[in-house]
Each structure stands twice: as structure tokens, then as C-alpha cells.
Design a protein that fits this description.
Blueprint lengths: L4 H11 L3 H12 L4 H24 L12 H8 L7 H19 L15 H13 L3 H21 L4 H4 L1 H19 L4 H14 L16 H20 L8 H14 L16 H10 L1
Helix pairs in contact: 2-3, 2-7, 3-5, 3-6, 3-7, 4-5, 5-6, 5-11, 6-7, 6-9, 6-11, 7-9, 9-10, 9-11, 10-11, 10-12
Bound molecules: iron/sulfur cluster.
Length: 287
């Protein structure tokens, strides 16, 4: 069965429910669980996300290779200074970097949708928690809606950097986050899909080029920018701005762009930033 935005929107309109309600019911039914039991599992997922988004904020955390790390604590420290983004967004950027660093240090993260892009959704959700003063339970609709977006991309296209470049990983994570945020901020199901479309369109064509094949650089940077992408996309959708192209077509376009990408730009560490002279020196030093 195609799991499309069109299908989800029809269900939401017919039943007059949110994307999160629709997806919670669907997942509970498919897993033969009650909604309450599923909520419990999702709360555990949120706890892991919170832990990873906070772990590297005060304590500099370095990757196993030693190539990257310590940036989350720099951003966290910097957030109260004279920043362009302001304390809230800079603090959220620090949380995105924190999860990326925890991942690179082989710590526990939630792949949402992948380990490489795992910093974006936790930073988005815990940013919303801070901004809206939500409880963990009140964050669940954001997580469910993000899950619905991730499922559409995974089923109808790809969430793998090796298949579709970083647009498929960090782009999908930003789209999931943008939709989740839009719902948490009171947006309609239609607005959630506009937000998801914006986030994916913003990074269409983004290549996957991790230095030495380690999920470290430029991955952590793309988690930080992916988080800001999600914020911009959600705010635009909540303002009533609409995507001319519907989400299903954006996903299809992303899939086609990924297929057209040369192998060197799909996580092979043979192109892009990974092929620069400095990256090659790093590769020799850290491999
Ligand atoms: S650059 Fe490649 S490995 Fe790194 S996050 Fe993006 S898709 Fe994943």
C-alpha cells in the first residue's frame, strides 16, 4: 500500500483528526498494541532523545576517531552572547550538535530517521518543549507526526545517504521535525505537510560526503543547519505560507535527484567535502 501525504490528509480530513492521532492509531493497530502502550514506548524514545540532546552541552564530547567533537559545548556556551540567532535558536543548534557528537562517540541515540541525521528531531522537539512549556506527554504528537513523515519518505523514496545523498537523511529529518513542530504549534495537517515540503525543498540535491566515511564531518554541521531549516519551515507554514508543490511530489523529486547523483556523492567518501585535500590528509591521519 502506498503511504502518501494524500492518503494521510484524506484520513485526517474524513475523521477530523490530526496527523499524530491518525499515525498513533495506525501504528498501534499494526503493532497490535493499545495506544497507551505505544505512548509508553514513545516516551522512552523521547527520554533517549533528551539524554543525547543534553549530554554534550556542558561536557565536551569527542568522536572515537578524535576527528571531531566539542562543538556542542562551544555553541551552548555562546548562546547567551551577542548572537545573530538569539539564545533560543543557538541553544537548539547546540542540542542538535550534542546528539551528533554522542552518536560519533558511539553513545546511545535514536536514529530519526538515521544515526547521521539523529540530531535534528530531538533538538526540534526539545526546543518546542522549552518554548511552549510542554510536558513529555504533550510532546508526543510532535513525535508521532514526525514519524508519519519519515514513514512516507522511507516507503515512497529513501532515507539512506548511500541511496539518495544527505538530502535523504538530514533532509528527511528536517522535514519530519518541521511537520512535528507545526503540529505542536497548532498547525493543521495541511500546514504540517507544507512545512515538510519546505524543509526537503531547501536541501534538494544535498550530497553525502563524510570525511573518511566517518559520520562526523560535515554530518554534525548538517544537523545544526537541518534544525534551523526545520524551524524556518515550521514558522513559514504556521504563517500560512503554502508549498506550490505537494509533499508527495517533493518526495518523488528528491528520490529522482538521489538516483541521478553520482556514486561519489552518495556516502562513499569519494566526492564533495570528503575529496578535498584537507579531507584526504584527515583520512590518512585518522584511519
Ligand atoms: S553527510 Fe552522509 S553520512 Fe553524513 S549525515 Fe549526511 S547522509 Fe549521513
Amino acid at each position: 500500500m502506498h503511504f502518501s501525504a494524500e492518503h494521510v490528509l484524506k484520513e485526517c480530513r474524513d475523521k477530523e483528526i490530526s496527523i499524530s492521532s491518525f499515525f498513533r492509531d495506525l501504528e498501534a493497530e499494526q503493532a497490535s498494541m493499545t495506544g497507551e502502550a505505544l505512548d509508553e514506548q514513545m516516551l522512552q524514545i523521547l527520554s533517549v532523545m533528551q539524554e543525547s540532546a543534553e549530554r554534550a552541552l556542558e561536557k565536551p564530547t569527542y568522536s572515537l576517531s578524535g576527528m571531531t567533537g566539542g562543538d556542542a559545548s562551544k555553541a551552548w556556551e555562546h548562546r547567551r552572547k551577542n548572537t545573530l540567532l538569539g539564545e533560543f535558536v543557538m541553544g537548539s543548534v547546540a542540542r542538535a550538535l550534542s546528539t551528533s557528537e554522542v552518536n560519533a562517540s558511539m553513545g546511545k541515540i535514536v536514529a530519526a530517521p538515521t544515526a547521521g541525521a539523529s540530531g535534528i528531531l530531538p533538538a526540534a522537539l526539545f526546543g518546542a518543549k522549552e518554548r511552549l512549556q510542554l510536558t513529555m506527554e504533550e510532546l508526543l504528537p510532535g513525535l508521532y507526526t514526525a514519524g508519519a513523515i519519515g514513514k512516507i519518505v522511507a516507503q515512497e523514496a529513501t532515507i539512506s545517504g548511500a541511496d539518495g545523498g544527505c538530502q535523504a537523511e538530514c533532509g528527511t529529518a528536517a522535514a519530519m521535525s518541521a511537520a512535528g513542530l507545526t503540529e505542536l504549534f497548532g498547525g493543521t495537517p495541511e500546514a504540517c505537510f507544507h512545512a515538510a515540503s519546505f524543509a526537503l525543498i531547501h536541501v534538494l540535491g544535498l550530497v553525502s560526503d563524510p570525511i573518511a566515511g566517518f559520520v562526523e564531518f560535515p554530518c554534525s554541521l548538517r544537523n545544526a543547519s537541518g534544525l534551523v531549516n526545520a524551524f524556518v519551515s515550521a514558522d513559514m507554514a504556521c504563517a500560512g505560507i503554502e508549498s506550490l508543490v505537494p509533499f508527495d511530489e517533493v518526495v518523488e523529486a528528491m528520490h529522482k535527484v538521489g538516483k541521478a547523483m553520482p556514486e561519489a556523492l552518495r556516502e562513499t567518501a569519494l566526492g564533495g567535502i570528503a575529496a578535498t585535500p584537507t579531507a584526504k590528509k584527515c583520512e590518512k591521519k585518522f584511519l
